[in-house]
Write a structure and sequence with these properties.
There is one protein chain. About 5% of the residues have low confidence. This protein is of the alpha/beta class and about 575 residues long. About 55% of the residues are buried. The protein has 25 helices and 17 strands. The longest helix is centred in the C-terminal third of the chain and has 23 residues. It has an eight-stranded mixed β-sheet with strand order 1-2-4-3-5-6-7-8, sandwiched between helices. Strands 11-10-9-12-13-14-17 form a seven-stranded parallel β-sheet, sandwiched between helices.
């Protein structure tokens, strides 16, 4: 059904509605250079489940266009969102969904106190608040590298500010050909867009009226509306960090990646629909909100509302990583063969972010890990992050290690990692991709160690396995990273020794190599959490781990001598 809604300044906004009148209302706001037809594939996915309204923003589609650039300013756009919400759902809040520039103006609406009670929830796809972006560029909380990457991806904005030339690009068809190529990037088959030259040309005023004032003089815009941010893994215009930065301004945020390009709402509408169903269902059911602590907000929203499963969470690096993820806003499922240790980890995580749970599991038992995965999916949904930290077994010089234990780390560690990947990877692919699998390889690898025993072989096995799995899952958007943490104080190697041998302190021995030169577990956990967004193939943690391979290659004799003396290398 088509209708027109009159905006506060007299502009007429063309609105399409469909679906049962008694269902929750979704209000869809499109971006540039689209019109409301960009939502057609998603509307088909959700047909009959919701009352859906999609409108052409001012200047696009069938809506009228302001005669001056001032008519496209952000306050006008946010007022339009509220006016359409009032018209399609009088007296009840709507679930707002925005894409690209539709997200930008919807952010302005939900962070405006006058309109906030009109929205039951907000889902943003590939579009930040310009005010939040302005603060992010100025403070660079995620590092200069992320800012430079985003600056490169936003280079077209400068082009859009030049006079006449962008209009000519659209009128001659050159801009359309470039856009078609970008649509296919990371998105697969894309339903043809029903855009017009009018959509292309009028929408340039969105950039010219808003970018400079909002980015150079950003306001502090906060909201208590529950927000879900969806970030495609192959977005040609957005880096993850710019979108997850919303966590600094939102009380109740969920941040999720999924496999696809910038226009995934057309190429992969099923993935977007699945996240919408889960989020809207949670809000409609009145599920308690995930209020985030001040510490979590300071970290941004890279893990906000995510489910993180950590196998091997009973102590050492596993526990430290659980606490780091919980501090950043993730709901942690701590799994470990030692049930009480897992319970303690979950208890500590709940103090940081509510909702943590403990699950006892023997990683050597494939059926037990499969049962864990099924239970997590039933109770929490598909996890965004799975960490396989299956470091166990005896360590020590091979000549003094019993035959039954000499190779145990290789088999035990590799089986544990493989079982975790086998149980969780299929559901992460099925859910739309975008999740992350982190496999922690045991230490040491480089340099050699008196107490390492078979651990270097296990490390190499986990690294090789992770590379193979990464290639296998690349097409689905699930990232796989092998973490090489080096010696970790309090880690498995620090405690492992051949059966029957006394503890180093009991034997009067010098402190172990990890205890003297290893990375603190907390510091290693921070490094891992910082790198998850980029999903590198291999993540060496600590200078020794990064330099070890080069030292072993160019000065092997010196490395062996130092390791034999038990000295740090």
């Amino acid at each position: 059904m088509h209708r027109y809604v009159t905006a506060s300044d007299g502009q007429r906004l063309a609105v399409r509605t469909t679906g049962p009148a008694d269902r929750p209302v979704l209000l869809l706001v499109h971006g540039y250079p689209d019109n409301s037809s960009v939502w057609d594939a998603l509307v088909e996915e959700l047909a009959g489940e919701y009352r859906i309204a999609a409108y052409d923003v001012r200047g696009a589609g069938r809506s009228t266009a302001p005669g001056t650039r001032a008519g496209y300013r952000m306050d006008r756009l946010a007022s339009d969102v509220a006016a359409v919400a009032d018209a399609v759902a009088p007296g009840r809040p709507v679930h707002l969904v925005g894409h690209d520039w539709g997200s930008i103006q919807s952010w302005h609406a939900v962070t405006e106190p006058r309109y906030a009670d009109r929205f039951a929830s907000y889902t943003s796809i590939s579009g930040p608040s310009l005010d939040h972006a302005g603060h992010w560029f100025r403070s660079a909380p995620d590092g200069l590298r992320a800012v430079l990457r985003q600056a490169v991806r936003s280079g077209y904005i400068g082009f859009f500010h030049t006079p006449v030339v962008p209009e000519l690009a659209w009128l001659t068809g050159l801009g359309g050909r470039v856009l078609a190529g970008l649509e296919r990037f990371g998105g697969g088959d894309v339903r043809p867009a029903r855009r017009t030259t009018r959509d292309h040309v009028n929408g340039l005023a969105l950039y010219r009226a808003n970018m400079a004032p909002r980015l150079t003089r950003p306001a502090g815009r906060r909201t208590a509306v529950p927000v879900q941010v969806l970030a495609p893994t192959h977005d040609a215009f957005m880096v993850d960090q710019l979108q997850s930065n919303a966590g600094r301004w939102v009380d109740d945020l969920r941040f999720h990646r999924f496999h696809g390009g910038h226009w995934s709402l057309r190429s992969r509408p099923g993935a977007v629909a699945a996240r919408l169903r889960a989020f809207v269902g949670e809000v409609e059911a009145g599920t308690p909100r995930h209020r985030r602590s001040p510490a979590a907000r300071r970290h941004g929203g890279a893990f906000a509302g995510q489910v993180a499963v950590v196998i091997g969470a009973g102590g050492g690096l596993g526990r430290a990583l659980c606490l780091e993820l919980a501090e950043r806003g993730a709901r942690v499922v701590a799994a470990d063969p030692d049930g009480p240790a897992a319970e303690r980890t979950a208890e500590l995580c709940s103090l940081l972010t509510p909702g943590a749970a403990a699950r006892p599991v023997d990683v050597a038992d494939a059926a037990a890990v499969e049962k864990l995965a099924a239970r997590v999916r039933e109770e929490y949904g598909v996890p965004d992050l799975v960490v396989n930290n299956a470091v166990t077994g005896a360590a020590g010089p091979p000549p003094r290690t019993p035959a039954a234990d000499a190779g145990s780390p290789v088999g035990t560690v590799l089986r544990g990692v493989a079982h975790g990947c086998r149980a969780f990877a299929p559901m992460m692919v099925e859910a739309g991709g975008g999740g992350r699998i982190v496999n922690i390889a045991p230490a040491p690898g480089h340099p050699p160690s008196l107490r390492g025993g078979a651990y270097p072989a296990a490390r190499a096995a986990v690294s090789a396995f992770s590379r193979s799995l990464r290639g296998e899952l690349a097409a689905s958007g699930v990232g796989v990273t092998a973490v090489l943490p080096g010696p970790v104080v309090g880690g498995a190697l620090d405690a492992a020794r051949p059966p029957g041998s006394p503890a180093p302190e009991e034997a009067g021995a010098r402190p172990s190599l990890p205890s003297r030169c290893g990375n603190a577990a907390e510091r290693a956990a921070r490094s891992i959490a910082d790198a998850v967004a980029d999903a590198p193939a291999v993540l060496p943690v600590g200078a020794g781990t990064r330099l070890g391979p080069y030292l072993s290659r160019f000065a092997p004799g010196a490395v062996r001598a130092l390791a034999g003396a038990g000295l740090p290398v």
